[in-house]
Request: fold
Amino acid sequence: MLHAVAAGIIRRKKRQARRTPGAHPSRSAIFDAIDRPAYLLIWIFGAYLAFAPLLLKVHAGPTADFARAALAKLFDAGIFATVFWLCLRTARVADLALEHWAARSPGILEEFFGPLLGEALEALVPVVGVLLALPLLGLPPAYHDLLAKATSLMIIGAVSWFLFRSIASGRDLVLARYNIALADNLRARVVHTQVRVITKSLYVGIGVLTIGCALMEFSEVRHVGASLLASAGILGVVGGLAAQSTLTNLFAGFQLAMAQPIRLDDVVVVEGAWGRIEEITLTYVIVHVWDDTRLVVPLSYFITKPFQNWTRTSSNIMGQVHFWTDYTLSVDELRPVVERIVTACPLWDRRFWNLQVVEADQTAMQLRILATASDSSRAWDLRCKIREEVLAYLQKRSPAPLPRVRAEIARAVGGAGNAAAHDSSAPCSEKP
Reply:
């Protein structure tokens, strides 16, 4: 009868909540959360009230005492399970209400605290439910110390999980406002690098504190810790020597986060390899090389050794192409050709181009073509395009503009020498 009455009331309330225009979705969800635990609670009490009078008819003795104790334990366990289940379902309703509130109130605080509080409730409410339901079990005093340690570990774990989720939510909120996929992503790369390095450092710190707090709950571990502190001098020296490289990279990570010599998606040249910064961890950096290989570089490398950063202040870059040509080539005639090639290429960003003679030796002269592009990838393709077009132009004219080596062979004095010189070569020979 109680089950039927409760089911009727809950169904009517759910229908009213669904029919009300503009009603909060959690109004119907709260009845969905409490209906089954309420039914289970009614049947637990009903079963206990049904079997309790039967046990009163059993004659006193060990069997009767065992049966009564078993019934009491089953009743307490049922209440414990029902309360725990109700807490889980109620936490989900609270999470739904917070999501609805965050959606209706757009803002930084609502966007951050809404999902965070909902997830925190889903983790903390069951812990509180367990703490409140444990006294219902009526365990003997011998288990009180074990229960105290277990509950302390649960609280430490829940708080640590909440801190981890808070940091992750804050990281996602900040990174979502800076799109690293844009063409002009300098500010985004700065923020992404700082946030990721600091986040990983906080994760390590929280993990160490969590393990330390958990171990301090056991007296045996505290005794071991006291004995370790007595020899802290030796352990400090040994640990410092063993972890020297790790600590160096760890401090280098903080320097990278603050000074920003490199950032995520920066174009760098490291150890002669051209690539992009793909990942920055607490100990090493992953460089995505142009041939799809990965170069793993310790963090300390970017603090102690020189390297090239092509996107330190801007992604704009100037590409250069070099040619060796013969002295017979007219630079004034080649300049309009280069201008036509550069201006017709869509990879050029319309900022600057130039053609100059930068070097000359006894055999040829060196030409340099400069052209700007919006990023390093386009600059590489632009350089290749200019090189191919200019070479095609030089080849079509004739082999004359290409570098040549000239040699003059003097004729020897005398008959045999004259004959040998006449038979061996012409007065002037060319070698391409």
Summary: The longest strand covers residues 317-325. The two ends are 108 Å apart (CA to CA). DSSP finds 13 helices and ten strands in the chain.
